[in-house]
Design goal:
Layout: H1 2-18, H2 28-61, H3 79-107, E1 115-122, E2 125-130, E3 136-138, E4 141-144, E5 149-155, E6 160-163, E7 170-173, E8 179-183, E9 189-195, E10 207-213, H4 215-229, H5 242-248, E11 256-257, E12 262-263, H6 273-280, H7 284-293, H8 312-315, H9 318-328
Parallel strand pairs: 1-5, 4-10
Antiparallel strand pairs: 1-2, 2-3, 5-8, 6-7, 6-9, 9-10, 11-12
The structure holds dinuclear copper ion.
């Protein structure tokens, strides 16, 4: 009977493994996570099949014959069986625990020379800083192939969570706390970084582009970004660019604004700011500036307070806010 159960378990396992349940792995860490996943799943499938096999057999073999009203024989248990069904699960659970602990510890190990990338999250956008390549910031995550990357992460407002499905690793970002996670990409291509912690009305739109490229291409990209951010070496750097700020701060995730090609529906449409300023009884410049720095001071009809982060007055420099105002009013 155990034999039949094991054969059924083997067949079920082959069927289960035959489907692509998980995204194709793109990191060393995800390879290990998949190993734990299948290690535990196959054990469960085999145990289920053995138990279900016994159950079906017992229902068939020990069923009551018609007209048989006698009691069954008294049973005093079976020490051998009891030892077996205690010892085998104990060994299996300990094995799963040990394998998991080894994988968790190896997945947290960045090795002697990781690339550092800082991650900043805010409602509802991602921003990355590359301290090992001159410290420029980007709203695209670019990673070199086959290099351990240590992400050091924090949030400007509420709890967010970092996850690239193909790379497995997942970690929360908390305001005022730095968390970290290690990813070693093993496959070239474009991926999506998604937020997996409900963080407000725009949570579902909080996605960012992530790309894995060859080391040489990464070095070249980083060099270009660094040169662009340092303004070609001129004193004081380039003037802030409203369009870039709009993209980098994730404004399009919540707002529709035609010049930026964004169609967010969480907050008011920004194509009619002049009319909104009139309705609020302020000059367009003052109105837009106030709406960025203190979003709850005036609420557009039909919109709730407390949705847009009130942190931009702190995270943006005054000249950056001015550049955004000019861009939003079409004066750039
Ligand atoms: Cu950020 Cu959900």
């Amino acid at each position: 009977m155990v034999g039949i159960g094991l054969v059924a378990g083997l067949i079920t396992t082959l069927v289960a493994v035959g489907f692509e349940w998980l995204p194709k792995s793109a990191s060393e860490q995800q390879d290990r996570i998949e190993f734990v996943y299948w290690f535990a799943t196959i054990i469960c499938i085999v145990i289920f099949s053995v138990v279900a096999g016994w159950l079906v057999y017992a229902i068939y073999a020990f069923r009551v014959k018609p007209g048989d009203d006698t009691d069954g024989p008294p049973i005093h248990g079976h020490s051998g069986l009891e030892v077996a069904w205690t010892a085998i699960p104990a060994v299996l659970v300990i094995a799963i625990g040990v394998v998991t602990a080894v994988v968790l510890s190896r997945n947290a190990d960045a090795g002697p020379n990781p690339l550092h990338i800082k991650v900043f999250a805010q409602q509802f956008a991602w921003r990355f800083q590359y301290p090992d390549n001159g410290g420029f910031t980007s709203n695209e995550l670019v990673m070199p192939l086959d290099r351990a990357i240590k992400f050091e992460m924090t949030s400007a407002d509420v709890i967010h969570s970092f996850w690239i499905p193909e790379m497995g690793q997942k970690q929360d970002l908390l305001p005022g706390v730095q968390t970290s996670i290690v990813v070693t990409p093993t496959r070239l291509g474009s991926y999506t970084l998604v937020c997996t912690e409900l963080c407000g009305a725009g949570h579902a739109t909080m996605r960012g582009p992530a790309r894995v490229v060859e080391t040489a291409a990464y070095t070249e990209w980083a060099k270009k970004q660094h040169e662009a951010s340092s303004g070609g070496g001129g004193a004081g750097g380039a003037a802030p660019d409203g369009a870039k700020l709009f993209a980098a701060n994730g404004c399009g995730g919540c707002h529709t604004f035609k010049p930026a090609g964004s169609d967010g529906q969480v907050g008011p449409d920004l194509d009619t700011l002049a009319d909104a300023a009139k309705a609020a009884g302020a000059s367009p410049e003052e109105f837009v500036k106030q709406s960025i720095a203190d979003p709850n001071a005036y609420l557009a009809p039909g919109y709730q307070g407390g949705v847009m982060p009130g942190t931009f007055a702190k995270t943006l420099k005054p000249e950056e806010i001015d550049a955004l105002v000019q861009y939003l009013l079409g004066k750039e």
